[in-house]
Structures are given as C-alpha cells and as structure tokens.
Amino acid sequence: MLNLETQIGSLTLKNPIMPASGTFSEELAQVFDLELIGAHVTKTITRQKRSGNPTPRVCEVRGSMLNSIGIPSKGVEAFKTHVIPFYRQYDAPLIVSISADTADEFAWLCEEISVPGVDAVEVNISCPNIEEDGKAFAMRPSTTEAVIRKLRSATDLPLWAKLTPNTGETIDVAKSAEAAGADALVVSNTLLAMAIDITTRRPKLGNLMGGLSGPAFKPIALRMAYQCAKSVTIPVIGCGGISTVEDVVEYLIAGATAVQVGTATFIEPQIMVRMVDQLEAYLNAQGLTDIRQLIGSVEDGEASDGLVFMEAAP
Amino acid sequence: MNSVTAQPSLRFDGIKPIHGDECTIKSNRPVNGEYRLMVLAASSKLLDCEPGQFFHLLCPVTGDLHPYLRRPMSIYGYYPDAGELHFLYKVTGEGTSALATLNPGDTLNVLGPLGRGFDILPRWTNLLLVARGVGLATLAPLALKARRLNRRLTAICSARSEDVLMSLDYFRSLDVDVIAVTDADGTSNVDHLRFIIERLIREDGIDAMYTCGSNRILNLLQAVGKTHDIPGQIALEQQMACGIGMCQCCVRAFTRNGAIVNERVCREGPVFDLQEAIGC
Ligand SMILES: Cc1cc2nc3c(=O)[nH]c(=O)nc-3n(C[C@H](O)[C@H](O)[C@H](O)COP(=O)(O)OP(=O)(O)OC[C@H]3O[C@@H](n4cnc5c(N)ncnc54)[C@H](O)[C@@H]3O)c2cc1C
Ligand SMILES: Cc1cc2nc3c(=O)[nH]c(=O)nc-3n(C[C@H](O)[C@H](O)[C@H](O)COP(=O)(O)O)c2cc1C
Ligand code: FES
After folding, report:
1. Is-catalytic flag, A59?
2. CATH 3.75.10.10 is right for the domain spanning B4-114
3. Where in chain B is the domain with CATH 2.40.30.10?
4. What pLDDT does residue B14 have?
5. Distance between CA B112 and CA B102 in Å, rounded?
6. Smallest Cβ distance to A270: which of B5, B12, B15?
7. Inter-chain CB proximity A27 and B267 less than 8 Å
8. What percent of chain B clears pLDDT 70, i.e. is strictly above it?
C-alpha cells in the first residue's frame, strides 16, 4: 500500500498536494472533483470589501508571470455566507487565508473566521503592514512575532504563517513565527518584480510592480523552504513554481511536508489531480511506499550551518 | 500535456463542466491579409457551446516564441455534427504568432467552453448585430443560433476596407441581411451607422442589439438603445490568466444601479449588458 498521507500539525491531509491562495476557487469544481486534492486554500480575504489594483493585473515574463492583483475582497460576511458552506460539502480540510493592515485587525478577522467548517487559518503576513511604512509583516522577525502572537490568542485553529521572499532574514522570520505559536509555515508568497514594455516604455503592470510566480521563481522558494525546514520544527509547506511532479518531489526532499501549487493551475487547471496520480507512480517506480521516505531526505552531507543559513549568494 | 484525467465533480449546481482537451488541427489558413481561420477536430463534450463563449488556448512554445499563459479566443463556430471547433484570429503578438505556426495534424490544448454567452430572449424577434474587425469572430455564431430559433437577423459588418471584410457569405448563407460598411468608402462613420440603424428601427423594428469590441460602436448603440428603449449585449475583452474565475485579473468596471461594480470578464462575461458596459 502506498501512503500519500501527510500530517500538518494536528491536521491529516490525504495527500500533500493543495492549491496556493489566490490561484484556486469554487469554479475549479467544474474542472475536477475537488475531493481529490489534499486540502482547499481560499483566496486571501480582508475584513472590509476591497476592489484590488488597477489593470493590467498580470503579465508574462519568459516561462513565468508577474501579478499585481492585490486583494480584492467581498469582505468577511460574504465569505462566511457563500464560500465556507460551499467547501463544507467536501471532506478535504478548508484552509482560509486572511490578511489585514494592522496586527489588531488581523486578530479580529482571525477570530471572526474561526467557525465550523474552517480547519486552519493561513495568515498572509506577506502583505503590507501600514503601521510599519507598508513593509510586509513577514519582512522582519519582530513584526512577524508581534502579529503571530496576536493571531495565536485569537484562535484555537491551526495557524499557518505564509512567509515572503522579500526579506533578507528568512531564518529569523521563520523562527519568530514558530516561537510566537504558528503551527506551520507556508514558504512562500511571490517575489517583488517588474517588467517594462520597451516599445511604450510603460511598466507592464498597472501597479508598476508585482509578484513573480511560476517556474522561474522555484529555485528561490525552494531554497527558502529548505532553510526554514532546517531551522524550525513545525511543518513547512513548500510553495513556488511547482509545475511538475518532479518539482513536488524536490520540495519534499528539501524538507517540505506538503506543497501548494499556484500558477501552474492557470496553465493546466487539472494539474493538481494529475500530480497526485504521478506522485503515486513516482513512489512505485522508486520502490518507495510512503512519502515520508522523501520528506527532508536531502543529501546535504556535512554542510555547516554557515552554508545552510546563508542569506547571500556565494 | 495530457487531457483531463479526473471527472469534474457535480457539486457545482446547475453549471456545466469545463473540459481541457488536446485537439487535432484540421486546417489553419489565412482568410485575408490579417486574419486566420483555425479548424480543430473536437470531441462532442467540447462542443456544447453557446455563442459568445470562448476557449482558453495553450499556444505552443516554438522557435523564438514563448507564450506562457493561455490566450482567450471566441468561438467562431461550433459544429457538433462535424465534430469541429473554429477560431478566427488576428496575429498580434507572441501567442497568436505561435498559433499561426500550427499545421494540420498538430495538436492544440484547449480549455472550455468558458464564460457566459449571448442571450436571445423569447420576445426578441428582430435582432441587430454590429460587428467591427475581429469582433465578427465573436458575433458570427449568433447568426446560426438566431436561425435555429427562427429570428430575423440583420448584420452590419464594418471594416477598414473591402478586402478585410469577413464572413459576408457566411452570414448570407444563413439568410442574414448583411449591410457592409468600410472606412475606405466612408460608410463606417458613426453618423452613417446611426442613420442606418434608425432606418432599420423605423422600417422593421429592432428588439435587441449585439456588439463587440469597438468603443465607437458601444457609445453609439448605448445612445440608440436609450433613445428607443432597445436592450442589448456586448462581448468585452480583458487580459486573462486563469480564464475560469480564480485569479481576478480580468475585471472590468460596469455601472449598475448608479454605482460602479467590478466583474470578471471570464466569468460574469465576456457578454455583458450593453448599457452597463464602460468603454476603455
Ligand atoms: C473573451 C475574449 C475573446 C477573444 N476572441 C478573439 C477572437 O475571436 N479572435 C482574435 O483574434 N482575438 C480574440 N481575442 C483577443 C485575443 O485574446 C488576443 O489577441 C490575444 O490574447 C493576443 O495574444 P498575443 O500573445 O498574440 O499578443 P500579446 O500582445 O503578445 O499578448 C500579451 C498578453 O496580453 C494579452 N492580450 C493581448 N491583447 C489582448 C486582448 N485583446 N484581449 C485579451 N487579452 C489580450 C495576451 O493574452 C497575453 O497575455 C479575445 C479576447 C478575449 C478576452
Ligand atoms: C494571480 C495570483 C494571485 C495570488 N493571490 C494571493 C493571495 O491572495 N494570497 C496569498 O497569500 N498569495 C497569493 N498569491 C501567491 C500564491 O499563493 C503563491 O504563493 C505564489 O504564486 C507562488 O507559487 P506559484 O509559483 O506556484 O504560483 C497569488 C499568486 C498569483 C499568481
Ligand atoms: S482570468 Fe482569472 S478570474 Fe478571469
């Protein structure tokens, strides 16, 4: 018997493949049976209704994309009445992603959505904190710790902290999130990037800059997932550029307990289901029986902490 | 890339499944200096379409062309009996250039049918369609449906010049009254269009108007619609990533009950109420 089951703290997922926030919605149920994936992760919501950024909100860069969608949100009430009931039809755990401009509002929202039907809260602390000049909470250990502490006391549900690659302090941020009570880390959100149309000389995104996602981003997010897995004991969920089953396996080997698939779903909407099948086939072909035989199995030898926790390219 | 392996769940009330499939190209030829017609062999599940809906095409990566995201393309024709899906497209950039490289026998991954198509309400008997340029691709399948429902259809087809006017024979073969106007002979300007439309309203009456694309035509039809209290629908475009409603990148602003609302072109559209649309 093959075992694809994985454990994120107290939550058991029947397989390690789940969607990344903002790249998944109820509509995908028209493409495949949503019960087949490990968990459901919803688009980040905010307390109030918001309209998001100006268009164009996406552009492509060679083999990848940038987005500046922002967080258009119908608000928490609409979410509770329309979205949570939809996902209650499924056994797969529902992970709700939330965001706020201040730590207090974050905590308020977290408490507000800790309702039956929600199995964990993913806190998108990669968004700007208006009390810190718009710097993302997860850019610094201190702001990460402060917001996670408030969130921790706002809910009994598992808390997943979603980190940002836009920091030079990945390891300290990861440790702060763990110390403040996060149950898992999602590594990571998109990397701030830019593209300019050389004919018009205009930035390709309405918001000037946006987040890089897709295959070009994978080595960066993989490096971060590896570093986080080496520095905390809570589970790390790998996210960034996954588009093949080999990418999934690579993240597991790096130390991720599960993975999130984002942009690849835009290219092939049924890709997560295909990856579940292919992961099984991979285990079979390798003579393995359990994905736990892959998780954290990276052969990094006797690498010193100095190397593992490096925050600069050599 | 494989075609779908898993069946969609039926837990999405009243909404049809979306299919991803690999289709074989039957032909892919220029129809004039600007547009190409691509004919695909498609399975019947893909062909349960409505006029105005679209497919999201995974354009091939070939040579110097590296399109990444899918490209939205209106259904120009869907023929369940012949098992064919048609697209009429203009080569404008990387994705459409890559489409143009496909040869008969090659395959193309398509996702759809997507979005909400045009309505033909029971009381709408005299229909008017005003198409400019590639907007024709989106509006053409309306002609087939209008005929199936026994409605009378007039099509005003506008283009820069005679040689890029398309589908006139196609429309005529479906008993559509065709009025061709061009920039070259000075017949496509707004005043003249208005004159033609007002005459049609006077002589035969018009119950609904359909259009696509052009801002000039949108403004004109909105004005005519308001004056004569004639409803209408417009198909709109916006850049897309997912095409099925997940990413929110394709929103456009609309006016509804005096307020501005944002809707997703891929999901609530691409067909919208004519009076609610805002040009760009
Ligand atoms: C619902 C819908 C139906 C369409 N139907 C047709 C059709 O039947 N025939 C046809 O020729 N064209 C149609 N278009 C426009 C077509 O999608 C674009 O011409 C095409 O995406 C251009 O891609 P490109 O890579 O060649 O151009 P590039 O300019 O290189 O594209 C860069 C990016 O911008 C996007 N983009 C560029 N122009 C448009 C546009 N007008 N609308 C949306 N996205 C755009 C591309 O998808 C791509 O992501 C339709 C668009 C929509 C939204
Ligand atoms: C269009 C789009 C919208 C996104 N929206 C959100 C969001 O609302 N909240 C969030 O935490 N991450 C969001 N993300 C980031 C993804 O969840 C993911 O972290 C990132 O895209 C990297 O994974 P990928 O390379 O597999 O896409 C979004 C990404 C994209 C492409
Ligand atoms: S293209 Fe993603 S929501 Fe419309």
Report:
1. no
2. no
3. 4-114
4. 57
5. 20
6. B5
7. yes
8. 95
